[in-house]
Amino acid sequence: MTSADDVPVLIRRLDPDVMIPAYAHPGDAGADLVTTVDVTVQPGERAVVPTGVALALPDGYAAFVHPRSGLAARLGVSIVNAPGTVDAGFRGEILVVLVNLDPRNAVEFRRGDRIAQLIIQKVERARFIEVESLPGSMRGDGGHGSTGGFTEAGHPRGEGI
User: How far apart are CA 44 and CA 92, in angstroms?
Assistant: First the structure.
């Protein structure tokens, strides 16, 4: 079901039999991408998987390729560069770099299997302005782990010491 607020995205099928990205349910953020090939991903390995589609996004938009939560939970499959970014000016085939994080079991995908989800978002462009110093903030320049979540002994909260 479409609405007047939907962003028009031109799509080209590079494989005539492939399903174009589709939303499984009303209100879904991600449209499913499928594989055009059969592929087996061994434990700890990655595979570059074709989807058979190319896009022309409007200026000011990008598409982001996200992992499917069901594949992650059931099989340990994710995307190496999650989310993958498809820029508005890119016209090539969308490829998904899957990784099998399961330490023991290979994962098999068959042509037509859903492998990722595509989210279209409006993006802002920045104008970078170099300065000698930045204005202060509550957080300051604290980096990784600076907002807490760990006990004094360095163990994550809720876990035994």
Answer: 27
